[in-house]
Amino acid sequence: MQNKITIIAVIVIILSLGIISAIVYKQRATIIDSSLKAGQAIIEFFPLGESKKPTWSSTSTKDGLSPSSDNTNTGFDNSNMFNKPAWEKITNLPIVGASVLNLSQASNTAIYLEKETGNIFMLKNGVGEPIRISNVTILEVFDVYFGLNKNKNIGAIVRFPKDNQLESILLTIDLGKQSNSTTSDSLPIITKQALKTSIIAYTVSPKKDQVLYLEDLGNRVAVYVTDFSFKNSQIIKVLPFKDWVISWPEENTAVFQTKTNSQSVGSLYYLSLKNKSFRRVGNGILGFTVNANPDVKKIVYSVSTGNSFDFIYRELASGKSNTFTPKTLPEKCLWFDSQALVCAVAERLPKATYPDDWYKGKLSFKDNLWIYYGESGKSSRLYDLVGENSNLDLLPQARDGLNNFYFTDKTTGILYRLNGGRIFEP
User: Fold this and answer.
1) What is the CA radius of gyration of the chain?
2) Is there a smaller number of Cβ atoms within 10 Å at the N or the C end of the chain?
């Protein structure tokens, strides 16, 4: 009898333990599931922590982690961009310059000039194989500026050395005359126009429909604005100094920088194309190179500091500034929106005289791609260049409406593209 009672007691104990274990397991599973959901929520809130792929929203957050952009509303089906590699080699031969034009029925078309031949190529809608659209041979091209005239024909200002000076010609390319044949006879009709040898600098408007240029007047320089026919030039200003670096980031404002180095101070000026005022924005900074944002209210700039330099973001109206790390030169950046930049950043910065030694080719960088947020001062590694791409010293060329970023390698001149459809998730 005693043995039966003992056996029954053991069975009851075993069953009780089983029930308790089942309850605990279920509660544990619930806790784990809740924890996983909470962890996923954290990852979704800070998407850089999981995949290093920022998820852009249409409005900026207060901490600057989400710059303003909406990749899905582009008017172009970018689903095929997901089939592309994130980093893509576009050319096998060196190029001189690249841009992006919105052609009729072919928006976001990349266009570039091949250095060895002077021929011009384009990628319609930024996809497919490059198409040659010119057979005008121009050797030793120095630089090129692309745009569109009033008839939506492509304009290319090409500069090249001749008789110890730089000469310029304007090529106008009428794509409407192109046939489906691949022979040279079927290439678009191209007209050539010689430009003044006294023109010493060019820059193109944000809409790619106008040109601002500087004409050397001896000890002064005249500033003109014209369309891509060069038939309606309007003088804007005459300046007593002519050694400028110019850009045109905002429709009504051109940016003028004095050329500088690590031992001399530089200045920054804004030229209003509305009222023709010329005002100084910054002054007295060693090694001062500048990249102004699309509304010219913010800039990034470099400051020489002995054997290195600082990389600084500044809001001009408020004076608020942030010093970025890791540092890079402003010339190696493209603005993503009004306060965020995508930049090529050296894996390691050797001690040197900046920016002089880099410009002179005494050193080169091994770049990766980073994104910087001006308002918060934060930065994040965007894409690592590895393998055969690990020795690239990148120069930004253009960004299209699909958030594809074009770069050339400073050493080889080869054109590359960071494909936005793979990096910036819609």
Assistant:
1) 28
2) N
Place of tokens 């020795």: 391
Give a yes or no: residue 220 inside a domain. Answer: no
Burial of residue 284 (CB within 10 Å: 0-12, 13-18, 19+) is: exposed
Cα dihedral 144/97/265/276 (nearest 10) = 50
Q: What is the C-alpha to C-alpha distance for residues 116 and 422, in angstroms, rounded to an integer?
A: 32
How many residues does the structure list for the chain? 426
Has residue 22 been placed in a domain? yes
CA dist., res. 47 & res. 55, Å (int): 7
Residues 53 and 47 sit within 8 Å (Cβ to Cβ): yes
Q: What are 76-109's pLDDT values in tens digits?
A: 334 444 456 899 999 999 999 999 999 987 899 9
Residue 1 belongs to domain spanning: 1-45
Contact 254, 278 (CB under 8 A): no
Given a cut of 80, whether residue 132 has pLDDT beyond it is: yes
Bond prior to 54 in cis (omega within 30° of 0): no
Q: Considering only CA atoms, which of 391, 337, 346 is closest in space to residue 370?
A: 346
Domains contained in the chain, number:
1
3 located within any domain = yes
**Six-digit token string for 214:** 């500087």
Query: What's the start-to-end Cα distance of the chain, in Å?
Result: 75
pLDDT score, position 178: 62
In a domain, 346, yes or no: no
423 or 353: which leads in pLDDT: 353
Q: What percent of the chain has pLDDT over 90?
A: 69
